[in-house]
Amino acid sequence: MIQFPDMEPDRKKTFLDIIAAETEVLNRLLGSGGIGESGAVYPRDSLSSIKAIDFLAGIKDESADVADLRIELAECDSRCTIRVENYSMRLAVAFVLAQLRDECHVQCKRIRLTVPGNLVQLDFIWQGPPVKIEQLRRWYDLPVAGDRKGYTLTLKEVLEHNHAELWPHTHKDNPDEACLRLFIPMAHSDGKPEAEDVRTLPQLPKGRPEFFDFDLFHQAGQTPEIEKRILGELVYTVFDTETTGLDPRGGDEIISIGAIRVVNGRLLHAETINQLIYPNRLVPPDSTKIHGITDDLLKNKPTIEIVLPFFHRFVQNTVLVAHNAAFDMRMLQMKEKRTGIRFINPVLDTMHLSAILHPSHGDHTLDTIARQLGVNMTRRHDALGDAVATGEVFVKMIPLLNERGIFTLKDALVASQRTYYARLKY
Q1: Is residue 9 domain-resident?
Q2: Residues with Cβ < 8 Å from 304, sequence gap 6 or more?
Q3: Judgement on whether residues 147 and 237 belong to the same structural domain of the protein
């Protein structure tokens, strides 16, 4: 309007109506505390390193009036260090323990500390039924400090700021024992990757060709019980592979696997896989131009026989998600005889889901879908980078699928099977 002061009255009124509507939205947000609560803003770089056992000692002191906790250290070095905003995380844990006591009527008796990989895992354990997902989601929106003035951060805000994740867990070996599992990233001496893993990645506009030569809809792990589950309640592993080429049957090999966990509609950036793999063959120059992976980068890396069992354990009891998933699944299937590893997980393909949501669109590449959904792709043709982007796309797709009456895993699979892509075969 400033740039074009002489615009026509009707067009000017349209812009004024937009401004008025947006102003009302902002007023409601400000009035309800939706923006920047006073006293609840974290200073930049407020995270600091602390030994995990010292953090637990602080939790025990903070929660003394809530629970008489016993600390168990399992597979944990006493020097293990995490990076958190100590005060807020202590409040958050005390809040969760109080909610267990007051709302769930269970008493947390012990905390078990383990260090699986590059994160620290705290299990808050009790005897009794597990916390329901609906309960935990409601707790996310509650202030961790209760009625204390001047500190209004919610549980969700504290967890996000500390890059932490929290979800219910039930032990298969002891069904009477339940826990809430808290993941906190481990602090490293420096955040730089090893020099040998550094590579320059070109930003290319096109993804790999669509691949349809794999049946995604009849996996052995696709049981009726899992199919009935609501999409937002399932645990997913979103993954991607980089390969020596695009011909699984012609001898092309996997040279990189990237994966990230998605729980409760959130990407767990502390729970990822990013592994280069030695393919026992040279990488064609044309492939290197796409993903930037050279033969030198793959020297001394583990072979697929070593990596695939680890990846198989990582994806266990989750639904697999990938873009153009048939290609990646075929690459994995071609290694069954060599490794003895078989992937039976249910599979969702964001290419099919995009075709469900936008049936009139002719372009369902990851780049296009990401752009449509406002997902920023900064590490294209990097296995973990593409997995993260696919995960962000998938999370944004779930409510859009719900709007179209697709609520369960079965709904999504049935709808995917009706798309144009699912009917194509080589």
Answers
A1: no
A2: 253, 254, 277, 279, 335, 338, 339
A3: no
Assess whether 367 and 238 both reside in one domain.
yes
Question: What are the catalytic residues?
Answer: 381
Q: Flag whether 383 is in a domain.
A: yes
CA proximity to 328, closest of 353, 345, 303: 345
User: Which pLDDT tens digit goes with each residue over 261-304?
Assistant: 999 889 998 899 999 999 999 999 989 988 999 999 999 999 99
The DSSP code sequence of 84-102 is E-HHHHHHHHHHHHHHHHH
Three-state DSSP state, 404 = coil
Residue ranges making up the domain that contains 418 = 208-423
My answer on whether 128 and 213 are in the same domain is: no
155 lies in some domain: yes
Q: Are residues 276 and 366 in the same domain?
A: yes
Please choose, from the candidates 311, 238, 339, 271, the residue with its C-alpha nearest in 3D space to the C-alpha of residue 115: 271
Residue 231 in 3-state DSSP? helix
Query: CB–CB of 398/232 below 8 Å?
Result: yes
Beta strands in 128-253 (DSSP E): 165-170, 177-185, 236-243
Residue position matching structure tokens 């990189």: 256
Which pLDDT belongs to residue 192?
39
Return the ∠ at Cα 81 (arms to 75 and 87), rounded to 5°: 120
Q: Could you tell me how many residues make up the chain?
A: 426
